Amino acid sequence: MDIDPQILSNIVQILTTLGVAFLTALWLSILFWVFRDIRHRTRDPFMIILAVILVIILPIVGVVIYWIIRPNQTIEEKYQAALEEEALLQELDKKPKCPGCGRNVEPDWILCPACHTRLNKLCISCGKVLELPWNLCPYCGTPQQKTFRSEQNQ
């Protein structure tokens, strides 16, 4: 069975054309992906131009080099990390400080363990922790200051 050389030549030409079209489409899609990816990772125009030129000049090797030099995080990931860090810092700032020495204290401590400054007081009736200026226990309703008459009767 002989194959006509003209038909074989046409098949090779069609396969070559399809191969070149595929490689061109692959190269353009990689170029488009690199452009979009670098724009999500930096706002530096020099870095964007460098990444695109690298992929234009060195199609396969350029992508590997781009993967090595590109920033690890996207701008959105950096923003989210900064928000998380800010939230953690605000949590630390919310922790009460001793008015005497400035160290962190727990909200239910009566005295500062470092400088012995009085931080809170206990209810005379139910024993719950109260802030120093409170004159009435919000838990049991007992007034916290003894009246002069009750002190004389004791």
Report what the structure shows.
This protein is mostly helical and 154 residues long. The chain folds into 2 domains: 5-75, no CATH class; 98-154, no CATH class. Helices cover 56% and strands 4% of the residues. It has 5 helices and 2 strands. It has helices spanning 5-41, 45-57, 59-69, 75-94, 148-153; strands at residues 120-122, 129-131. Strands 1-2 form a two-stranded antiparallel sheet. A hairpin with a 6-residue loop joins strand 1 and strand 2. Helix 1 packs parallel to helix 3 and helix 2 (45-57) runs antiparallel to helix 3 (59-69).
Main traits of this protein?
154 residues, mainly alpha, 56% helix, two-stranded antiparallel sheet, 5 helices, rod-shaped
Short description:
The protein is mainly α and 154 residues long. The protein is 56% helix and 4% strand. A hairpin with a 6-residue loop joins strand 1 (120-122) and strand 2.
